[in-house]
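Issue: copy button drops trailing tokens. Both records pasted manually instead:
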Amino acid sequence: MADKDLASPLISSAPSDHPHLILTVQDDTDTDHNNHNGNHGSNSTHHHFRNPYAFLGSDGFTVPGSTTADPFRNHTLEIRGLYEWLKIGICLPIALVRLVLFGASLLIGFVATKLALQGWKDKKNPMPKWRCRIMWITRVCTRCILFSFGYHWIRRKGKPAPREIAPIVVSNHVSFIEPIFYFYELFPTIVASESHDSLPLVGTIIRAMQVIYVNRFSASSRKHAVSEIKRKASSDRFPRVLLFPEGTTTNGRFLISFELGAFIPGFPIQPVTVRYPHVHFDQSWGHISLAKLMFRMFTQFHNFMETCHAMATSLNVVQTSHSYGDLMLLMKASQSKSKLERPASYMVEMATVKSLLHISSMEAVDFLDKFLSMNPDPRGHVNYSGFLRVLRLKACTFSEEIFAFIDVEKSGSITFKQFLFGSVHVLKQPLFRQACELVFSEYVSGENDYISEQEFGESIRPAIPDLNEDEVHELFNLFDADGDGRISKDEFWTCLKKNPLLIALFSPCLLNKDISQDGNRLVEEIV
């Protein structure tokens, strides 16, 4: 069989000349469900709505297909089967001994590390050799910690390249076990989140590794981290630099998108993979608490671990476009008050989304927060009435046009992925910012630099003529963030940036200036 790369499917597809039969089954209950969710499902099926964002130059958008892959799911969250319960019962006394060993090893390692760090101030340079010798005590303690977790032996495949050939090591990240293993095996300099420094006991041990801290949400922090990686990798006096380019833990069944920090410096890289073969207990630190994972490890006869100095061929897994951003979305969805059947359905493969839409993970989480406030059903779908409630729109033809724009499948409900792609599609239109500025300047009266509630009502009534005073007030409060009874330019822009679909409310104002006939007219108006 020919070798496969990470982009190759594990199972070959059938030849294209084979006939295909596709059946579509319409469930009557789904039809009824759509028809009663805000009475919009039937309308979106039979009516053709105009594009409410054509004035910005939008001709609609498409949503990429979703994957069923969940790289963060731990597959043994629940203890099932008589064998597992018996094993836990038998191992409970052993677990107590292991817990004592774990605590003693951690404490001894902490004391040794404090001793090695005592009085050391020049931390820009490599740790002196006599301090490194003291750190061997901590390294032995970490091997005892691995033993306490049931890793009595660890199978290794291949031989790593010398440090002078490959100064950077990259590894997949499945559990909290790998950093412990690499500390014992390599005592490397690691790249880690700033939050790790404040961890009790562990934070001190991490500092002894001359850790390179990085805030993944700060461009300056990421730039500094790359500079430090380059500086330490270029000098043989420093230990190897270790990175987990996936940026988070997965369940080991997928290889998610890599961050580029390890590769930008341009040094040779030693890839290492870690696998945890198992039958009854998935050791991955996915969507599971640390305490529960540690308990399960303590109550196993033995936990298997393998390392290999290669990546694609040794893992034999599927590559996905998921990233740490998807884990953020998953955690946000899991914390929702809505009873969601599959929180994982809110993952959107953020690596692809970033390349297509040019938004950050934090921006995607903000849009998810807005979507969750629309009270999605257990399937993760939002109906027409929930959509209107959060955007504070009145049920009318104009509002139906906005909803139908997002409802690309014309099913009478929308998913988070549709809401995200639709909202960002509008936000990223080249004329969006100019449109916001033009609308604001149009309704600012005299020398004022704000819009009053009366002026706001005048600006949106051309789109929805029969709005009453209470409905105008509700929308006004959405824009008036500080509640001072007026909308500043910053408040106006911030609200539309968070709710880009609402720019359609001001389309009559812009259309009256004939911007639909001349694509450059809007820019000319602002200049």
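Record 2 (pasted manually too):
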Amino acid sequence: MRLLPLAPGGPRRHSPRHLPACSLALLLLLGCCLGVSRVAAGSRRPNVVLLLTDDQDEVLGGMTPLKKTKALIGEMGMTFSSAYVPSALCCPSRASILTGKYPHNHHVVNNTLEGNCSSKSWQKIQEPHTFPAILSSVCGYQTFFAGKYLNEYGAPDAGGLEHVPVGWSYWYALEKNSKYYNYTLSINGKARKHGENYSVDYLTDVLANVSLDFLDYKSNYEPFFMMISTPAPHSPWTAAPQYQKLFQNVFAPRNKNFNIHGTNKHWLIRQAKTPMTNSSIQFLDNAFRKRWQTLLSVDDLVEKLVKRLEFIGELNNTYIFYTSDNGYHTGQFSLPIDKRQLYEFDIKVPLLVRGPGIKPNQTSKMLVANIDLGPTILDIAGYNLNKTQMDGMSLLPILRGASNVTWRSDVLVEYQGEGRNVTDPTCPSLSPGVSQCFPDCVCEDAYNNTYACVRTMSALWNLQYCEFDDQEVFVEVYNLTADPHQITNIAKSIDPELLGKMNYRLMMLQSCSGPTCRTPGVFDPGYRFDPRLMFNNYGGGRTRRFSKHLL
């Protein structure tokens, strides 16, 4: 299948000697993207590929089956061991990747249209300012998207599949949420349905094929950006036929927080049945196994992509990023399967990067978040980051091994819980307001599962401080140096002065925008408490603020 570009007339294929004359205004515009030093492969700016998986954890061994990916990206570049998402749910997290903003600034709070997921408001206010839109309109990049975009993309009330977000030259987007068969793609705004024939319909392989086609037919005189967003390892966990019998002796990790009661945690965690039933454990073990099976096709995709980049002579001039939109849990604190929670298994993700100037076999412990991807990729393109309102920071100095890099010591995690207005039929004993319930009456979400956290990592502290927006203003605090599995909530035993500082820092981060999101944290030498930062108007819209704690 040959790709067709979105723009009339196809991608520009003028040779450098025959480029059309540019107006002064256009030259000034393009000048915003010429700050990157030229690389060895030639004078053209580097290409970028962003590979995004769906619900792939890091804490529970999510990278284990991806041997080729680790060899071709991680071992050839840098692996970040402390990469986080600002919200442990697909649509808010993906919106953060695209905008470089925390959820309170892009206003995508859940996976529904009402929660601003691919809504008309999102399309009007945020999409024109995403980093791919800047790459295309200002930096002259060819842009290619294939796979899952946002969970409500293609909804009739939000423009349907005809809507193609600003800034994409080639658009192969999945309608709504992840599937492997029997799905519909928007191909530059036109619907194409797929069935259940593995050889032509298996989505991960379709994404691989259209990506390789793009590399074959792209312009050779402009840099390119590719975003490939796979369904794996999201449910329904449908593996390719050749992988469906693998990992039969693999089970979900029985780590210290597996199948235990969530003592001294928010009520939603405490309500989980402990110990889990045998049927629940069998179910989550099977899900864990199938998730790994689906990732093997992603591993194949990565191998094909790297080989094709090498074959066409682009590999040495291409940055490749590999990450996920959120983590996942399978039995931790007796919660069967899902994401959405504040704990490491849900908010921590893989992040591997290779590219020009990145030395092989490196591991960085720097605290990074997916809001950093947009600024990093714009920095690679040479764009002046001061012209953006992004909350994140460019990883490029870290990737290139710069010394004395001034870096953050904390990031914000925020989530707005979802519930149903009626009693869940699988859980009649609980009142309305819960959701994501399992047959044995364990619910994974609720209206007041609304929380915000400061995740702090410094030379002396590895700390997480969280507050819930409920009647209790429930607080959870974890010292991850002593308690990496987050079993013991130390909110009532930690120094009250430190607890107060973390409370103020949380309020500030929940109100931050752009540069104020990058101010020194509580444990940084330059930290100072400035109450004005808690009540700025940068973020606009509704911001949750907490003003008290339990002590």
